[in-house]
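Revision sheet: structure tokens.
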Amino acid sequence: MICPMIKTNGLKSFLPFILAGVFSTFLGIPYQLSGQEKNEEVTIIAPYNPTVTSAQKINRNPRIILQENETLPPVQYNIHSVRLNTIVAPENPKPSRVPGEPSKDLYRSHIRAGFGNYLTPYLELWVNSLQSDEFNAGAHIRHLSSLGKIKDYANSTFS
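Predicted:
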């Protein structure tokens, strides 16, 4: 027995499924054979001129068809606005700290420099204050220029 919670009666529990499978197999055989009998060759001798007919928009907006003496009643509704006084005093959440995890070392600055084709210098500098609960100040400077001197082109104003 695979699972003690499931009780099976052997083949009796699978008998309806087996009979349904056998029955559906024999039902499909005549349809398969009738489709195989048609083996005709058709030759069409006529010029094919494809045409596109003009399309028209189908208007599917709802319409209310009234009788001659019937009118719609005017729509009337009232909005009752009621102020709900609640007493909620949100508190400032304190950041959670993971115990045993050391804080990451923060550095005051970061510089990135490079040089590319056509005399293209690249310089990027970040400067920031260290970790503080009172303030945070920083600056970001970026320089990217290019001196291509390509023939028959004006000087680059890219920098």
